[in-house]
Design brief:
Layout lengths: L18 E3 L11 H17 L3 E7 L4 E6 L5 H19 L19 H12 L1 H4 L6 H4 L7 H4 L10 H5 L6 H15 L11 H6 L3 H9 L16
Helix pairs in contact: 1-2
Length: 231
């Protein structure tokens, strides 16, 4: 039985927002596994200290994806501590100067329930799309992504896997199987611009409007290619 840490998906006692963020420039932000551990350890510590729920994440070579529900101190505090703390330690270790991350990140709010599952899948498939792993079976064990945790292959006490699995069922094994099947179906979808164009969604009047435009074949360009979505 899944012991969800929050209210059931979509109920009134489970308020928005969820946030997905990417505040990283095109340059490499990790050089090796020591850097990766540093970033993930900071994410883990802050999620507990600031009561921020982490649902999905993927650390890439030049950017990161994180899906969270911010705690009482808010998303700006969480992001400032995470990005600033990591950048200072990275620069010191590599004797580097200057900005590591872009100065600002942007966000919007979306309350469509189905969008949560899409974001989890999109984020967790990033290492496979980027060629960091070459099969879903390898992604099941990949250390620098939250997918392995949802699958039960790795443990991160700070990652709320129960909440994610709760979208796929109430029993552990069937929910895990349904989640993996859902992720597998996303592989053929490739890159999905509608999941990363925060500027597009903001300018078009919200996620529902963007989906309506997609149904009639109206493809728009994002007004800020660095913008990430917050759910």
């Amino acid at each position: 039985m899944i012991n969800a840490s929050q209210s059931a998906p979509g109920c009134a006692g489970n308020p928005a927002p969820y946030h997905i963020i990417r505040g990283i420039e095109r340059n490499k932000i990790v050089d090796d596994d020591k850097d990766r551990s540093n970033f993930v350890d900071r994410l883990a510590g802050l999620s507990g200290d600031l009561q921020t729920k982490v649902y999905a994440w993927a650390l890439m070579n030049n950017h990161a994806h994180i899906l969270v529900r911010s705690g009482p101190s808010g998303l700006p505090t969480f992001m400032r501590k995470l990005l600033t703390g990591y950048a200072i330690s990275y620069n010191k270790r590599h004797q580097r100067h200057g900005n590591l991350f872009q100065n600002r990140y942007k966000s919007i709010v979306c309350q469509e329930d189905a969008y949560f599952k899409e974001l989890v899948r999109y984020i967790h498939l990033n290492p496979l799309r980027a060629g960091l792993v070459d099969t879903l079976s390898k992604l099941d064990w990949y250390q620098w992504c939250g997918h392995a945790v949802v699958m039960g292959r790795r443990k991160n006490e700070w990652q709320d896997r129960d909440y994610v699995l709760g979208w796929f069922g109430s029993m552990e094994k069937p929910a895990r199987s349904a989640y993996r099947q859902f992720v597998q179906k996303g592989i053929v979808l490739g890159n999905q611009p509608h999941l990363v164009g925060g500027g597009l969604i903001r300018s078009q009047g919200g996620w529902s409007q963007v989906k309506a435009l997609r149904r009639i074949g109206d493809r728009q360009l994002s007004d800020d290619f660095k913008t990430r979505i917050t759910l």
